[in-house]
Write a structure and sequence with these properties.
By secondary structure, the protein is α/β, with parallel strands linked by helices. It is built from 13 helices and 12 strands. The chain has helices at 29-49, 108-117, 131-136, 152-158, 184-197, 199-208, 235-245, 253-259, 264-275, 279-297, 302-308, 314-325, 329-336; strands at 2-5, 17-23, 57-63, 69-71, 76-79, 82-83, 93-97, 123-127, 144-145, 163-164, 170-173, 176-179. Strand 11 (170-173) and strand 12 (176-179) form a beta hairpin.
Length: 344
C-alpha cells in the first residue's frame, strides 16, 4: 500500500487564510486532492505577485480520528500532520471531504467537535457525502444543501428539515457551502478562491490546472433517472423490457394496465406505490434514458433519436430533455459522447 505523508510545517504566516481539509476514512482521493490542488495553485500565484507570505492560503490536512492515518477508497493511505482537536488557532475555512454513511455513529465524535468548532470559523464546506457530517453536526438545520446525486433521496429522508437540491455542483447558504459528487469539490474550491481574491486569481488557477472556472450544466447530467435495481420485482420492472421495445408507441396508461392484466385504477395505485411516480412519468424518464444512450453511443441524428424514443419531434425532445437533464440534447452529446469516438 502506498503511504503519503503531508508536511508538518504548518506555522501560520502573516494574513494567510488557514484552509483545513478533513479527509474522512474511505473518501475518494479526488474529494481531497481536487480542493487541495486548487488552493495550492492559487496560493503560489498570489505569492508570485505579492510580498511573500502577505496573502494566500495555508493548507492543513487534519485527521478526524484519534489516529493521524487515513485510508482512502482509492487504496492509498496517508498521514495528516495533525488531528482536528490539535488545531489551536482560528480556522478560516474548513472543508469535510467525504463521510462514512454506512455507520454514522463512527463519525459522532468528529461531528460533536464540528458542532462546537463551527461558530469560530469564517466558513465551512463539504465535498460529496461530506454533507452528511455537516448535517449530523446540526450545521445545515433549516438550510439549503447539495450532495452526491446518488444519495439525494437518502439524505432528504434522514434530514427532512434540510432543503436538498442536487442539481447544482455546489450551493451556498450563509457561510455554509456544500458540493456534489467528488469532482464538484474542485468547482467549490475555485468558487471560494474567487470569493477571496477575485475572478482573475481563480481563473489563473483554473488555467494552471487545465480546468473550467465554472462548469456548464448541472449534476443531473450525471445522474441516473431510473433505479431499475430497486424495482426488479415491481410492475414497472416487469413491464420495462416490453416498454423498451415499444418506445415509439404511445404507451398509454390504459395500454400498460392491460398488458399487466390489471384494472386501470389498481394499476395506477400499485405503480405509484412501488415506484413513487405515475406511469406516465415513468415512461417519460425511460424515454429520456434511452435518448441519453443514443446521444452517448450513436451517430443517430436528433430527429432519429426523437422518433425512436417516442419523444415527438426535435423541439419536443429538447423541451423534455431540458426539463429532466437541465441541458440541451446537443450539449449533452458534446459532453458525454463516448471517449472512443474518432476525433476529426
Amino acid at each position: 500500500m502506498l503511504h503519503l505523508c503531508c508536511s508538518s510545517s504548518y506555522m501560520p504566516k502573516k494574513r494567510k487564510k488557514l484552509i483545513v481539509i478533513v479527509p474522512m476514512p474511505g473518501t475518494y482521493m479526488l474529494d481531497l486532492a481536487g480542493p487541495l490542488d486548487v488552493f495550492t495553485a492559487a496560493d503560489r500565484m498570489l505569492n508570485e505577485t505579492a510580498a511573500a507570505g502577505d496573502i494566500g492560503y495555508e493548507i492543513l490536512l487534519a485527521s478526524p480520528l484519534s489516529t493521524r492515518k487515513i485510508a482512502t477508497n482509492s487504496g492509498i493511505e496517508f498521514t495528516c500532520p495533525v488531528r482536528v482537536d490539535e488545531i489551536g488557532r482560528q480556522i478560516d475555512t474548513l472543508i469535510v471531504a467525504g463521510f462514512s454513511i454506512r455507520n454514522l455513529e463512527t463519525g459522532k465524535k468528529f461531528c460533536d467537535w464540528l458542532h462546537d468548532a463551527y461558530p469560530g470559523m469564517r466558513r465551512i464546506g463539504s465535498v460529496c457525502v461530506g454533507t452528511y457530517a455537516l448535517a449530523e453536526a446540526g450545521i445545515l438545520d433549516g438550510k439549503q444543501a447539495t450532495t452526491h446525486w446518488e444519495f439525494s433521496q437518502d439524505f432528504q429522508r434522514r434530514y427532512p428539515d434540510i432543503r436538498v437540491d442536487t442539481n447544482p455542483f455546489y450551493t451556498r447558504d450563509g457561510n455554509v457551502y456544500t458540493s456534489g459528487g467528488v469532482a464538484s469539490g474542485i468547482d467549490l474550491a475555485l468558487a471560494l478562491v474567487e470569493e477571496d481574491y477575485g475572478r482573475d486569481v481563480a481563473l489563473a488557477a483554473a488555467r494552471k490546472l487545465v480546468l473550467f472556472l465554472k462548469r456548464t450544466g448541472y449534476q443531473s447530467q450525471f445522474s441516473t433517472l431510473m433505479k431499475t435495481h430497486a424495482m426488479e420485482n415491481s410492475i414497472a420492472g416487469k413491464l420495462q423490457p416490453w416498454m423498451m421495445q415499444h418506445l415509439k408507441d404511445d404507451l398509454t396508461v390504459e395500454e400498460l394496465a392491460e398488458h399487466s392484466s390489471m384494472s386501470l385504477r389498481n394499476f395506477n395505485r400499485v405503480f405509484l406505490k412501488e415506484t413513487g411516480m405515475t406511469p406516465a412519468k415513468f415512461v417519460e424518464k425511460l424515454r429520456i434514458e434511452m435518448a441519453r444512450k443514443y446521444l452517448e453511443d450513436s451517430d443517430l441524428s436528433m430527429e432519429q433519436i426523437a422518433e425512436r424514443c417516442g419523444l415527438g419531434g426535435v423541439v419536443s425532445m429538447r423541451r423534455t430533455f431540458m426539463r429532466h437533464m437541465m441541458v440541451s440534447p446537443s450539449d449533452y452529446r458534446r459532453t458525454f459522447r463516448t471517449s472512443l469516438q474518432t476525433v476529426d
